[in-house]
Amino acid sequence: MKILLIDDSKTMRNIQKSVLTQLGYSQVEEACDGNDALSKAAKFGPDLILCDWNMPNMDGLTFVKTFRQTNKATPVIMVTTESEKARVIEAIKAGVNNYVVKPFTPDLLAQRIQETMAKRAAA
Amino acid sequence: MDPAFITPFISSIQHVFSTMMQLRVDIGTPGIKKDPAPTYDVSGIIGMSGDVVGSVTLSFPLATARNVVALFAGSPVEPGTPDFADAIGELVNMVSGNAKGQFTGSKKVSISCPSVVVGQNHLVARQKDVPCISIPCKTDCGDLVIEIAIRESASASGATPAQAAAA
Q: Which residues of chain A lie closer than 8 angstroms to B97, CB-CB?
């Protein structure tokens, strides 16, 4: 499975990447903001996207809205410090499939990925 | 400053450090800070805008910052490198974002991308009309402080800027 990991923090990308590796996902492409992610998503064709919200240049919400104009199928999990109910609703309306609030444990991130992919497989 | 702004930062730093690094944070007695110089050598700074305005700084002695970053990143990172600043920035981002989620309620508040300064005797310019509360923290990696200089914006409270600053 190909996963696109979008976060402006290299430290957070490394932490998430190590969880993905432990889960057996080795095909991981990284992007540092929404613009970078749009370009990499087109070339990489991910099966799952993990996306931060607050990033320079193009934030995660704008990325999801733009990405969903041409791709309704690829699941997106928002991984962010934004925990307010209104923000979660805003993200889901934009096309986010699941949500992880930072800080997170490796187990929680793994659980959200597995939930999301199980729903995708059942659809 | 509204005390309701302080408690979320205390629970947030404990939650973030415990979840990401299994690091316990013991909180000391908060005090008002008048000096614009950060308490220590490494500062992670984040701005807040919208219905709450101001800034939040995590200030570390260099040795503490080295220890915390090594624990967070999973291996030692040299101070002065982009990766070191990245790790400190992400920590202040998580502490501020998590605290914001606890105090905002119906308020609309945005946080900026973090800035990180490394070096002795640097200054962090804050809005003059916003008092700064310093909260000392003790960890097994060393001491650090959270410096919180935020207030409800005049437009959110319905007050004039002077009234909001005095609140």
A: 54, 80-83, 102
Reported confidence tier of residue B159, pLDDT bands at 50, 70, 90? low
Find the closest chain A residue to B104 by CA distance: A84
Residue B16 φ/ψ, nearest 5 degrees: -65, -50
Positive/negative CA dihedral, B148, B154, B159, B160: positive
Domain range spanning residue B43? 3-154
Domain count, chain A: 1
Confirm whether B73 is domain-assigned: yes
The pLDDT tens digits for A41-64 are: 999 999 999 999 999 999 999 999
Report yes or no on B164 lying in a domain: no
End-to-end CA, chain A: 17
CB contact under 8 A, A103 and B113: no
d(CA B105, CA B126): 25
Using the Cα atoms of residue A9, residue A11, residue A17 and residue A23 in order, give the sign of their dihedral: negative
**How high is the ipTM of this complex?**
0.90
User: Does the CB of A102 have a partner CB in chain B at under 8 Å?
Assistant: yes
Tens of pLDDT, residues B24-71? 999 999 999 887 676 789 999 999 999 999 999 999 999 999 999 999
Nearest to A83 among B74, B89, B101 (CB): B101
pLDDT at site B165: 47
Count the helix, strand and coil residues of chain A and give each as a percent rounded to the nearest 5: 50, 20, 35
Res B155: pLDDT: 72
Write out the residue range of the structural domain in which residue A90 sits.
2-122
pLDDT at site A120: 87
List for chain B the helix, strand, coil content (%; round to 5).
40, 30, 35
